[in-house]
Hints:
Belongs to the Nudix hydrolase family. This is 8-oxo-dGTP diphosphatase. The chain is α+β, with helices and mostly antiparallel strands. The chain has a single domain, classed as Nucleoside Triphosphate Pyrophosphohydrolase. Helix content is about 20%, strand content about 40%. A hairpin with a 3-residue loop joins strand 5 and strand 6.
Amino acid sequence: MKQLKVAAAIIINNGKILCVQRGLNKFDYISEKFEFPGGKIEAGELPSDTVVREIHEELEMNIAVEQDFLTVNHEYPDFKIQMHSFICSTPTRELELSEHISFKWLDVSELWDLDWAAADVPIVDKLIKELDQ
Ligand SMILES: Nc1nc2c([nH]c(=O)n2[C@H]2C[C@H](O)[C@@H](COP(=O)(O)OP(=O)(O)OP(=O)(O)O)O2)c(=O)[nH]1
């Protein structure tokens, strides 16, 4: 089975977390799901560099990586992913959507209002455990 290596950014600005929605996809289990922005790690690239590059490409946003958060291994029906996630900061909430169909800036307590890609569920759980007080 194909194994993807992905890096994703949990971008926090004034306590709100950026959540982005994927468009229609050939795999119904990721189609229109919410996720953290990011993408595939290129050969020789550090995962923390992947998130800075991808967030600039996809959202025209400049972020700073603050800390390693969680690495998730998830098996979808057609492929496996290993996803590294990082807590990141950004000086402004300005962004330009190019690959996603919507976005929301949410408090951690609101994260479960969204329909997340399955691989993101452990990240959302950990954010709620660590940040919701
Ligand atoms: N970026 C990102 N991808 C995620 C998350 N959760 C999750 O299951 N994925 C999956 C969806 C994709 O299959 C893969 C990420 O690859 P990608 O962003 O390059 O997406 P893609 O397959 O649409 O891209 P491409 O082949 O068109 O370049 O990981 C997440 O939180 N962020």
